[in-house]
Write a structure and sequence with these properties.
- The chain has one domain.
- α5 packs across α6.
- By secondary structure, it is mainly alpha-helical.
- The chain is built from six helices and no strands.
């Protein structure tokens, strides 16, 4: 069902998909969760580049402190080269 909803997103508007598929079914999808995590990491990188603290970024994105620290290291590594 979740896969059908994801594929439907290629052709249908959001409101139509939401009427057809229950949100909780989508949230159980591994693909959906992966997309959500990628988006959270992208937002976290933006927050870190703007100078927010690791703790604030973790609270704002739902990522763990360890995940945010790893993202901070990714930002710092190119600067050290």
């Amino acid at each position: 069902m979740a896969a059908s909803a994801i594929l439907a997103g290629l052709r249908l508007e959001d409101d139509v998909i939401q009427r057809l598929v229950q949100r909780d079914i989508m949230q159980e999808s591994v693909i959906y969760r992966s997309i959500q995590k990628e988006k959270a990491q992208e937002i976290a990188l933006n927050f870190l580049r703007d100078g927010l603290s690791i703790e604030a970024v973790a609270r704002g994105t739902g990522l763990s402190i360890e995940e945010v620290q790893q993202l901070q290291q990714q930002i710092n590594e190119p600067a050290q080269s």
